[in-house]
Amino acid sequence: xxTELVLVLFISLVSLVLAAYVVVDRGxxxxxxxxxxxxxCRRDHSSDLERSLDLAVRAQQYEVGLGRAxxxxxxxxxxxxxxxxxxxxxxxxxxLQAGRVVSIDLSLMERYxxxxxxxxxxxxxxxxxxxxxxxAHSVIVITPGP
Length: 146
Prior knowledge:
2 domains; 4 helices; Translation Initiation Factor IF3; 14% strand; four-stranded mixed beta sheet; alpha+beta; 146 residues
C-alpha cells in the first residue's frame, strides 16, 4: 500500500471515531440531564401525608363484631422523632419486632418522606396484625400484634 492511501485511511478512521464520540457524548449528556430532572420532584406533596395517615387509620378501624380490639397493647411507648426515612424504617421495624409500642413524631421530616414512613408503618402493622393510631397532626402510634 502506498503511504498516501494509509494516511487517507487513518484520517478517515480518526474522523469516524470522533464522530461516534460526539454522538455518544451528546446522548450521555441528554441522559444525565434527564436523570437530574427526574430526581428533582416538582410535585406538591402537601396532601400525601394526610392521605397516608387517613388510609392507615381507616384501614385498621375498630369494627364491632370482629373482636380485633383484644390485640391492642396498652403499655409505655418508645418515642421516635425521625429526620429521614431509611434510618427510621430500620429502627421502627426492629422495635416493632421486639414487641414494643412506638410513638412516631413526623414533624421533623419532609412531607413526602413522612408519607412514605406512614405507608411503611401501615404495612408493618398489617403484617404483624398490629394497629396504627393517630394521636396528633403529625404523631402516630403503632402497636405490634398479640
